[in-house]
Each structure stands twice: as C-alpha cells, then as structure tokens.
Amino acid sequence: MPEDRDWEAYKVPPTRTPAVERTTSLPNPVTFFQTVFGYVVEAPVTFVREWIERQQAKNKFYYYHQKFRRVPDLSECLEGDYLCFYEAEAQWRRDRMVDQEIVEIIRERLGACKQREGPNQFQNCAKEMEQLAQVTKAYQDRYGDLGVHGNARTCLMKQKHRMMEERKAQENASQ
C-alpha cells in the first residue's frame, strides 16, 4: 500500500452535518403514520399483552407438574359404569408409566454409581443394587406376565390370584 495518499481522491466527510432545512410547512407523513399506528394499534395491543402477563404471573401454571385426581379403582366401579371403567383404565396406565419411570431412574442411578466407583462397585453400590432389586420385584409382581396388551382388569385378576395363593400358603403353613 503506498505511503502517500491522494487526499483529494478520498475526501474526509465534514465533521458537522448541516441541519436539514424544511422546504414545506406540512408535517412529515411518515412520522404522522408512525404516531397514529403507535396510538391506534401498538398501545392497545401492548396494554392487553401486559395485562395478560400480569394475570399469568398471579396464577403460575407449571404444565410439567400436572396432577391428575385419583379415580376409583376398577374394583370400586359399578356394573355397567363404562365411564368409570375408562377412567380406571387411564389411571392404571398412568400408574404403570410412573412405575416404569421409577424403575428406569433407579437403574440409571445404579449405572452412574457403577461408573463412578469402578472396581469397588460391589461394596460401594450395594444400597443401589438392593433398591433396584426391590423396585424391580415390586414392578414384576404387579405388572409382570401381563404382556403388551395388559390392562387394569387383567392386573386386578393377577393381584386377586396372588392374594388367594398367599392365603392358601398361610393356611398350609399354619396346619
């Protein structure tokens, strides 16, 4: 790049920009439309939006903490009450999903403990292993052998048969 610059070719802009003189007495239409738009459209929309935000701030709703009311169990439904059957089935499905997530969380905790402890995992992660064994046994007792198409009715029947077997085992043990 050459050292000597041609100052005439690259003129420096003036340091002070002169003020624009008005040539007409009419107001600028752009500022007029901006002002009208601000008062007619923007101000009401902003007011309504801020009012809605204030109302929502008063009543916080956390969608990820949705709580469903407990419905009667399938054993508590009356005969022919199909709405109760449907609600009990939906409740059972939600309970099953929650139990699946509990098992998965305990399994992830055990995996993290094994990863963290390395060769000492058997003595340092014994509590997590015991907890996983208990949770999986409880899940298997309740939902095991139901298959993919298991529902609340078959789960209830399984529970009834298990209780009958436990009673028979107690009667045989007491004799």
From TrEMBL:
GO terms for cellular component: mitochondrial inner membrane; respiratory chain complex I. It comes from the Eukaryota. The keyword Zinc-finger does not apply. Signal peptide: none annotated. It is found in: Mitochondrion inner membrane. The keyword Transmembrane helix does not apply. InterPro entries: NADH_UbQ_OxRdtase_su10, NDUFB10. Pfam families: NDUFB10. Keywords: Electron transport, Membrane, Mitochondrion, Mitochondrion inner membrane, Respiratory chain, Transport. It is a peripheral membrane protein. Accessory subunit that is involved in the functional assembly of the mitochondrial respiratory chain complex I. Complex I has an NADH dehydrogenase activity with ubiquinone as an immediate electron acceptor and mediates the transfer of electrons from NADH to the respiratory chain. Belongs to the complex I NDUFB10 subunit family. This is NADH dehydrogenase [ubiquinone] 1 beta subcomplex subunit 10.
